[in-house]
């Protein structure tokens, strides 16, 4: 199954009664496995989690550690970019040149990379003197 199809399917399972904005994320790990996530909101709004965070949690829980490629889809006028927190989360598990493809449910797509999404990323190297 393509990452786009997988993200499209898992998006349907999103729990988004507050924003009504369903998001699906699918990633392929460097081990070749598919891991999926959708946004899961909460009545205490800040406690919700993004689709990308869900896919990363599924990857780690399954025993994989690195992202080879990731796709995100939402029903938005333009492809929705991951939030700032998710960019940092993706950067933790993906090399800078990893492809990130953002889709709309009506067929638009935008291809970017981890590097381009988060210039100036904070890395472990910044803590070398700690
Ligand atoms: N959301 C995601 O899951 N991923 C994104 O890339 C953008 C935003 C979710 C969080 C929240 O449940 C809803 O979309 C509205 O912000």
Question: Which terms would index this structure?
Answer:
single chain, 130 residues, alpha+beta, Cytidine Deaminase, domain 2, five-stranded mixed sheet, globular, binds tetrahydrodeoxyuridine
Short description:
It is built from 4 helices and 5 strands. The protein is α+β, with helices and mostly antiparallel strands.
Characterization of the model:
By secondary structure, this protein is α+β, with helices and mostly antiparallel strands. It has a single domain (3-127), classed as Cytidine Deaminase, domain 2 (3-Layer(aba) Sandwich), CATH 3.40.140. 27% of the residues lie in helices and 28% in strands. It has 4 helices and 5 strands; from the N terminus they run H-E-E-H-E-H-E-E-H. It has helices at 3-11, 51-62, 84-93, 114-117, and strands spanning 23-29, 34-38, 67-74, 94-104, 109-113. The protein has a 5-stranded mixed sheet with strand order 2-1-3-4-5. The protein is globular and about 45 Å long. The N and C termini lie far apart (44 Å). Residues 16, 19, 21, 23, 39, 41, 48, 50-52, 72, 80, 82-83, 86 line the site of tetrahydrodeoxyuridine (THU).
Summarize the topology.
Blueprint: H1 3-11, E1 23-29, E2 34-38, H2 51-62, E3 67-74, H3 84-93, E4 94-104, E5 109-113, H4 114-117
Parallel strand pairs: 3-4
Antiparallel strand pairs: 1-2, 1-3, 4-5
Residues 16, 19, 21, 23, 39, 41, 48, 50-52, 72, 80, 82-83, 86 line the site of tetrahydrodeoxyuridine (THU).
């Amino acid at each position: 199954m393509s990452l786009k199809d997988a993200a499209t399917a898992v998006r349907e399972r999103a729990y988004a009664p507050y924003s009504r904005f369903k998001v699906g994320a699918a990633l392929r790990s460097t081990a070749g496995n598919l891991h999926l996530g959708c946004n899961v909101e909460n009545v205490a709004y800040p406690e919700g989690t993004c689709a990308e965070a869900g896919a990363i949690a599924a990857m780690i829980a399954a025993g994989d550690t690195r992202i080879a490629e990731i796709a995100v889809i939402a029903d938005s006028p333009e492809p929705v970019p991951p939030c700032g927190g998710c960019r940092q989360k993706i950067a933790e598990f993906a090399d800078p040149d990893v492809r990130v493809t953002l889709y709309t449910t009506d067929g638009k797509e935008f291809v970017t990379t981890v590097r381009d999404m988060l210039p100036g990323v904070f890395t472990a190297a910044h803590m070398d003197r700690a």
